[in-house]
Amino acid sequence: xxxxxxxxxxxxxxxxxxxxxxxxxxxxxxxxxxxxxxxxxxxxxxxxxxxxxxxxxxxxxxxxxxxxxxxxxxxxxxxxxxxxxxxxxxxxxxxxxxxxxxxxxxxxxxxxxxxxxxxxxxxxxxxxxxxxxxxxxxxxxxxxxxxxxxxxxxxxxxxxxxxxxxxxxxxxxxxxxxxxxxxxxxxxxxxxxxxxxxxxxxxxxxxxxxxxxxxxxxxxxxxxxxxxxxxxxxxxxxxxxxxxxxxxxxxxxxxxxxxxxxxxxxxxxxxxxxxxxxxxxxxxxxxxxxxxxxxxxxxxxxxx
Length: 304
Fold this sequence. Notes:
This protein is mainly α. The chain contains twelve helices and four strands. The longest helix has 31 residues, at 2-32. The radius of gyration is 19 Å and the shape is globular.
């Protein structure tokens, strides 16, 4: 029973990280039709903001030494500022360009942010012990529950509920939904493009900040390219779930996470190093059966 519960929690917690990252990517794509590969570097920036710059050998926590509530608020604010600045300086001037130009711009922005961190913090990986109490398990009857993974699942559920409420109950949220359906018509009806897109980048920054904190607590290592594997897995989840669908992004993120844990369990020990091949083989099968993703978006199909 303990093993079954542990495997379920492992799958849900990994799926939660991928789902939050996929949601940040899917939110921007839904409005701008931009696949923002620099989203992973926002996660990296949130992680490196915790420590003193250039502490290469024994990094010292800076923001990370504050009260946990202050740490969360500060990292969220920092990453949101970076996300909005990226939109204003890198993507807004190119908004009317071909989508391929925006895609290349996102790659260029990603490399710029990685090299900026290399310049300030140097390239050596850094170990960080953030909130070690979260790595301790707690007992629920006879079952030892991993505290951090429960926090991951709970944080994901809370953020999803808050985002749904925001999109349905606020004026800017309704404008974002209208823009994702038909951006041009929404502008004709009075939706302010700059405001809506800036809000979407701010929300994606918030999601990236939460992922960065959870990822640092889980792994305890900072690297300049730490966001790349997350954003690649999340991009796959976004495609599998359905490009342009926030529900699909969440579902796709959980599909990738659950599949990773599933194959880690069922594959023989000597084949587990090739787990990703099995995961992406399953993804290929899903896409062959559902080329438009698990959740199809009519607006995207019409534009394509």
